[in-house]
Amino acid sequence: MHELSIAEELVRVIREELRAHPNARLKAALVRVGALRLIEPMTLECCFEAATCDGPLAGARLCNEQVEALARCCKCHLEFSVEHSWFECPRCGETGSELLHGNELQLVSLEIEKEKADAMPSNEIELVAEGVYGSQT
Ligand SMILES: [Zn+2]
To answer: How far is ligand 1, taken at its centre, from the CA of residue 70, in Å?
Structure first.
């Protein structure tokens, strides 16, 4: 399951980003995922939850933004959507197309909440209060 290693990598990048905001609490992270990455959004969200549940990012939500795969024919310059990694141009049949979108895996934005460190309740109380985990755990 490669979603788990991706989630762990995201956690590493996010924690690096958050170093600049020591008292901030992560509410949500937005990632842009290209269709050719073959990532199941729900699986990635679950893996992210598992990777953050007992750390400083506990309770943070991961949001996926899926990007369609788009290629451009190098011969007739037609732009067409790519399905199942099939790169043949639908107009002229040329196979040497250039991928424009679909291979993305980017951290787009972080939604953080600034709090004073001494005013922060324990994680447990916070999670119950906000119902972040719901009944899934
Ligand atoms: Zn073409």
So the answer is: 13
